[in-house]
Predict the 3D structure of the following.
Amino acid sequence: MELRNYMQTLGRAARAASRVLAAATTASKNDALLAMAASIRERRAQLLAANALDLEAARAAGLEPALIDRLTLTDKGVEAMAEGLEQVAALPDPVGEITDVKRRPSGIEVGKMRVPLGVIGIIYEARPNVTADAAALCLKSGNAAILRGGKEALHCNQAIAACVRDGLAAAGLPASAVQVVETTDRAAVGHLITMPEFVDVIVPRGGKGLIERISAEARVPVIKHLDGNCHVYIDSDADPAKVVPIVENAKTQRYGTCNTAESLLVARDVAARFLPEIGRMLAAKDVEMRGCAESLSILREAGVSEQKLRAATEQDWHEEYLAPVIAVKVVADIDDAIAHINNYSSGHTEAIVSENYTKAMRFLREVDSSSVMINASTRFADGFEYGLGAEIGISTDKIHARGPVGLEGLTSQKWIVFGHGETRR
C-alpha cells in the first residue's frame, strides 16, 4: 500500500504539472532545456562518478556485455546528452501548430491543432542517457513525465535527475514536470502502467521480456517495439564499393543496439562475388555467421574459418542477437528477399544495397517495417540521425507513432473549427 500511495502521489503531481506544461510558452520550455544542458556540463564529474558506481555493481552482478555497453556513460556521452538537450531546444515547438484548415460549404473553417498527450510514463533499463533524452522530448512537447530507470543505472539516473530539476527551477516550471521514480522495486512498474487516471501513455525501453510484460499488463496505451531483427539485403545490382562498408557498419559498429543488423540476405547472382569478402571481414571482427547451406558452402570455399560458421536453424531467421552473431541467407532475388523480410522481420529497420532504382523503390514500398533504407546502414535508424534531436524510443506499431518517436510522436491532434456565426441547417 505504501508503494501504491507513492506512485499515485507521483501520478497526481504529474497530472497537475501537465496542465501547466500544456500552457507553457516555447521560451520557458527552451530556457529549462538550456539550463539542464548547462547543469549536465557543470556536473560532468559527478555524473561520471555515479556511472562508475553503477558499472562496478553491474560487473559484480555478471551483467551481459551488451547491457554493460548500454549502461556505460563516457565523457563524450555526457557532452552528447547536453548537446541533445540544446538540439531539442532549437527544434520547432509542435504544440499549438494548426494545419489542414479548409473552408466548408457551410462557411465554417475546419482544421487540426497539435496538442500534448498529457502524462507519459517511461520505463527503461541500463541506459542513463534516456533520462535526459526523455526529459527533453516530453518537456518540449508539453508533456509531464514519470521516468522509471533500471536498477542498473540507479546512481547515474538520480544524478541526471538533479540536472533536470536544476533546469526546471531555472525556468520557473514545476519540479513535478519530470519525476524520476526513486525506488528500484519492480512493483512500481506494475502501478505505473495501471494508473489511467494519471498516465496517458507508457513508453517501455528495454529487453523483450520487459516490453512483453508491459504490453500484456498495461491499462494505458503503449508505444513500443519488442525487438530489432534488422536486415541488410545485397541486391544483384549492388555497387561493390558500398557492400562491405554498409554490412560492416550495420553489424559491427555496436552489437547491443536495436538498429544493429542481425540478418544478411544476398542475391544468388552475386553471392559468390560478395559473400567471401563479407565473410572474411566478419570473421576478422570475431562475428559468428549462422548461414543457410548455400551461404556456408560459399564461405567455406572462400577460406572463412570453420570456427566462425554454423548452420542456421529456423529460429535464427527470427533472432535479435545483440551480440557478434549474424544470420546469413542466399535468396533468389528481390522478391525472395522481400518475402523473407516480411515473414521474419520484427518490423524495425531494413536496408537494400542496390543501384537499380526500380528495385530499390519496390523495396521501399513493399517492405513492411518502420524504417526502410536504400544504400545506408541500419544504424541510422535513430532519432538523432533523423533530425529529431533525440528520441523517446522506436515504435514498430502501425498507429499514432511509427519508427523513431520524437516531438511530433509525443503529441496528438484535435479538430478545431473557426466560425463566423454559422448555424447548421
User: Anything to note?
Assistant: Residues 288 and 308 are 5 Å apart (CA to CA).
